[in-house]
Amino acid sequence: MKGVPVLRMSTLFLRTLREDPADAEVPSHRLLVRAGCVRRVAPGVFSWLPLGYRVYRNVEAIVRDEMDAAGFQEVHFPALLPREPYETTGRWTEYGDTLFRLGDRKGTDYLLGPTHEEMFTLMVKQEFSSYKDLPLSIYQIQTKYRDEARPRAGILRGREFVMKDSYSFDVDDAGLQASYDAHRAAYRSTFDHLGLSYVIVSAMAGAMGGSVSEEFLAPCESGEDTFVRCTACDYAANTEAVTVPAPPQQPVAGLPAAVVADTPDTETIAALVDTANSRPDLRHPDRDWTAADTLKNVVVRLTLPDGTTEPLVVGLPGDRDVDLKRLEATVSPATVAPFEEADFAAHPALVRGYIGPGVLGTAGTSGIRYLVDPRVVTGTSWITGADEAGRHVFGLVAGRDFTPDGTVEAAEIRAGDPCPACGSPLDIARGIEIGHIFQLGRKYADALGLQVLDENGDLVTVTMGSYGIGVSRAVAAIAEQNHDDRGLIWPRSVAPADIHIVVAGKAEEIAAAAEDLAGQLEAAGLTVLLDDRTGVSAGVKFNDADLIGIPTIVIVGKALAEGNVEVKDRRSGDRHTVPAVDAVAELVALVNS
RNA sequence: CGGGGCGUAGCGUAGUGGCUAGCGCGCCUGCUUUGGGAGCAGGAGAUCGUGGGUUCGAGUCCCGCCGCCCCGACCA
Question: Are residues A321 and A390 in the same domain?
Answer without folding.
Answer: yes
